[in-house]
Amino acid sequence: MATVVSLLAFTALVAAALHQFAANGQLEVAKWQLFVQGAVLQYLLKGLWATVEVSLVSGAIALPLGVLLALARLARTPLLRVPAMLYVEILRAVPLLLLVYAFLLGLPSTGIQLSLFWMLVWPIVITNAAVIAEIFRAGVRAVPRGQTEAGLALGLGNWLSMRLIVLPQAVRQTAPALVSQLIRLLKDSTLGYVVSFPELLQSAKVLGEFNHTIVQSYLVVACVFIVLNVALASSANLLERQMRGGKNGSGSGARSARAPA
Hints:
The protein contains 10 helices and no strands. Helices cover 82% and strands 0% of the residues.
């Protein structure tokens, strides 16, 4: 019932917005023809690629950094565990926008000069690495303790048991959550407007202000982000179903192998 009410409310909201746009002439064909011009499409595609590039580079750095932080938090020595814990707890609480402003306004005063690209990437990496660390640590904790004990019984040692037995299982368990975090990371890239980095949202802002089509530009970009997020979410759901299917298949195989005995 709640879903139906929410859907009706959303439909009514969209209808009211469209009516308001039409009343103010925002749905006129002339205002939308701009977005089928080759030069405009090329400009927006360039902004889209900048967004994807920021997301890919940030993810490529944040993912292994998050794994290292998770392993440090799981370490027995306080020299690794305590600093990693402080990093994760503090950086998860600090707003990303605050970090972006710190890199934009704080670093130049210390004499450190970064390009606009890295001024956006590093704050995203710093915050997402903390979140990924918690996701991965939860995945490691979810692996039954018996798996580690079996490795130790075979003489593998703590590190080899973690690397060969626990980590592969933790990666499989956390893969859907990590894909979902990549969706969050993609959204984080829209803060490029703060440092004037020409990602998709910033490109739409410039295009809208130049052509007096702010509403149209932002709606087009919103549709692009919706498509990207739906594609990533579908990939996460597909990955999760495949993993569940693999687990069920493994379980059936194990039962059938034990049946004759």
